Amino acid sequence: MDEIEFLAVRFEENRTHLKAVAHRMLGSSNEAEDAVQEAWIRLARSDGAAIENLGGWLTTVVGRVCLDMLRSRRVRREEPLETGVPEAPEPGPASVPEPGGDPEQQALTADSVGLALLVVLETLDPAERLAFVLHDMFAVPFDEIARIVDRTPAAARQLASRARRRVRGVAPEPGPGAARREVVDAFLAAARGGDFEALVAVLDPDVVSRSGGSAVEAPTVVRGAANVARRAIMFAPYARSARFALLDGAPAVIAAREGEGFSVMRFAIERGKVVELFVITDPAGLAGRDLVLLDE
């Protein structure tokens, strides 16, 4: 067996792990496969005998490739090409607790990886996303992450910390949070049950529903409680999987159906009624917005 064949065997031993890292970084199976393939090309051109820790070396290379792809995507203001929606995650190792952190909360964060989390990750700065994914999900030390993002280990730790706050929803909910949450709960319960009268009851008579539009759909505006309630009933299949969030500081929900995309819905609530709904179904509509998942 020559050196290339030997490296190919070792590379295949690491492929599943590398694909999991790339998928969580990029949110696209096709792009993740491209990143892994680029890592193989770079390995084949390197002196394999001089690499002491091949798994760590490959993880670092994939991290750098993904970081470049994320930065390029942001410059082009493009989303992954497949469906435009983050996919379900590839399997991968759970995170290990950060020193001084809460192990139970760390585990819950790792277990929560799914469409909703990938939607939030899309709103992070590329360096923040890399630091969070590599450290919190794959236990890569900050010394190694620092070399990838060309910063100090302390700066890399700060990147992960900022991303973690966004993912865990540590940001305080503004105003009377509990009361707003109850209104959103009532809206979701009525939508899940297809209860038209209950939906009308939680909506202001002059409520307005706006959509952010997408690459294939123009923005829409719907006015009046009855009209908005009819559209909300169509949201029922998504409402069953809804998770609470904050979008630009306002109460919101993220919901997804496998193979059918996702929906982010922001609520404006006054006097115990929903006065405005803002719906985003295209990841491009989240650019520049502050989206934070809240703990259940």
TL;DR of this structure?
The protein has twelve helices and seven strands. The protein is an alpha+beta fold and 296 residues long. A seven-stranded mixed β-sheet has the order 2-1-6-5-4-3-7.
Give a verbal description of the structure.
The chain is an alpha+beta fold and 296 residues long. It has two domains: 3-168, Butyryl-CoA Dehydrogenase, subunit A, domain 3, CATH 1.20.140; 177-293, Nuclear Transport Factor 2, Chain: A (Roll), CATH 3.10.450. Helices cover 52% and strands 15% of the residues. The protein has twelve helices and seven strands. The chain has a seven-stranded mixed sheet with strand order 2-1-6-5-4-3-7. A hairpin with a 5-residue loop joins strand 4 and strand 5.
Map the helices and strands:
Layout: H1 3-26, H2 29-44, H3 54-76, H4 103-111, H5 115-121, H6 126-138, H7 142-149, H8 153-168, H9 177-193, H10 196-202, E1 203-211, E2 221-223, H11 225-234, H12 236-239, E3 243-247, E4 250-256, E5 262-270, E6 273-280, E7 291-293
Parallel strand pairs: 1-6
Antiparallel strand pairs: 1-2, 3-4, 3-7, 4-5, 5-6
Helix pairs in contact: 1-2, 1-3, 2-3, 3-6, 3-7, 6-8, 7-8, 9-10, 9-11, 10-11
Keywords for this entry:
296 residues; alpha+beta; Butyryl-CoA Dehydrogenase, subunit A, domain 3; Nuclear Transport Factor 2, Chain: A; 7-stranded mixed beta sheet; 12 helices; 7 strands; 52% helix
